[in-house]
Each structure stands twice: as C-alpha cells, then as structure tokens.
C-alpha cells in the first residue's frame, strides 16, 4: 500500500497549476531540480506519468484529471485541519479559478474578489476572462459566471438573476441618423445581437463599426462612432453615455453560476460558489438595469 505524502502532492499540484517546472519552483520557493525530482519520484512510486512533457511546458494527461482533483481535496483537508487548530474554521483558503465574460470581469466580479480576499486572506481567486465557455474538462476553471439562454449539457448551475441591456449613445450623437455599432464573434450569437438584427432589418449601411467585446463597443460609443447595445451594468457606469431606452424587452438573459457536472465540489468551492450566488443576487437590480428609472 502506498504511503501518500502531502509534500509530493504539493509539487504535483503546483506543476498542474502553473504548467511549467520553473513557475512551480518559484511558487513553492524551491529550485528547478527539486521540482523535477519530486515529480519523478511521485510518478515512479505510483507507476504512471501524470504529465506529458512538451516544448512549452507540462500538460496534464487527460486520464489524470482525477489525480489533481484528489490533490486539491487533500490540500483542502490539510488547510481545514490547520484552520481548526488555530480557531479559524470558517476561513477559506487555497486557489479558486473563476471564469466569466469580459463584462463581468471588468464591471462586476472585481468587487466580489476584493470582498472575499479581505475576509479570507489565505484565499486566492484567479479571474479568467473569456467570452467563450472555459474548458472545464481541462481544469481551466472551477466556477464560471455566464449569461446564457441555454447551457451545454456538461455544465450544471444556478440562475441568480438577469443581465439587462439598453441602447447607449453619446449625448451629442443622440439623433435618428446615428449609426449602430454591430456585434461580432461570440456576441453575434447573443440575445442582444438578435434584438439588434431585428431593429436594423432592411436598413442599408447601418453599422459604423463592429466588435466582439462589449467593453470595446462601449469605447467606440464613447468615441462617438455610433450607438451601442450594452449590458446596463456597463453602459450605466459610463459617464459619457446616456441610456436611450429602458432594459430592452427580448434581450435580457439569465445569469448562471456554473460548474462542470463532473467537478468534485470541495468545501472550499461550495462555499465560494454559495457566496458568489449571494453577491450576484444582491446586485440584481444593477445587473438587470432596473435600478435606473427611464
């Protein structure tokens, strides 16, 4: 029977988290050779490799994802013992990877990260920004916040409110002749894009510019290049723009807090997810755009 050592698992987890031996060494405060030796010892003891060595770093073998999950659970248990011994059983520690869109990463989630890390100084939240779903199967994120009408089958989650949209323009550009700013990339599949398509149907030369990011669309609108359909939480906070409409009917989208259905939810992840849901519900009026009267 193997004698599992947290010291060995710690090195395995550091390489999985950072992707390279040198980065893992910096994280753990040891030299490059020590990390290599510990990884080799672990793989030799258990009779199988955990990582695939590639030119750009170390990639976790697909069938070893469970090893990393088990290592995280071991880390969680050890931290929990230490917290209870020190009388801090309610503290949260360790790393949580949180994925969301650029809108949420810019306008919503930094406040949540600040609140969480202030009361849990040993908690580290990695905020991953992407307008496409993170690849949970490769452990890129533990939890995701996504506005979506339909979820992929591999994800499970809880709806915590709605993301509202409005039409925003610079005050000096608020005329009937003002052109629109179009949505491209992943945004082209959004409810906001469908609303805009119906609104501009049959009208020639309607777009002054287009972008695949609501943050970029807001910047273009601030430059006076056209009117934009924006999430209310972005548009309402732009001092150089005015909202032309209330929250658009047909464009609002449920906000989901998600995990992969195969993800083992450790106490740390469950608690962060619970607090994240509570935070987003408290922000529901701002996110829906209903906190500002027409």
TrEMBL record:
Which domain of life, per UniProt? Bacteria
- The HTH lysR-type domain sits at 4-61
Pfam families linked to this entry: HTH_1, LysR_substrate
| Keywords from the UniProt entry | DNA-binding, Transcription, Transcription regulation
GO molecular function terms listed in the Swiss-Prot or TrEMBL record:
DNA-binding transcription factor activity; sequence-specific DNA binding
PANTHER family annotated for this entry? HTH-TYPE TRANSCRIPTIONAL REGULATOR, TRANSCRIPTIONAL REGULATORY PROTEIN
Q: Which family does it belong to?
A: Belongs to the LysR transcriptional regulatory family.
Q: What is the name listed in the Swiss-Prot or TrEMBL entry for this protein?
A: DNA-binding transcriptional regulator, LysR family
Please name the source species. Answer: Lentibacter algarum
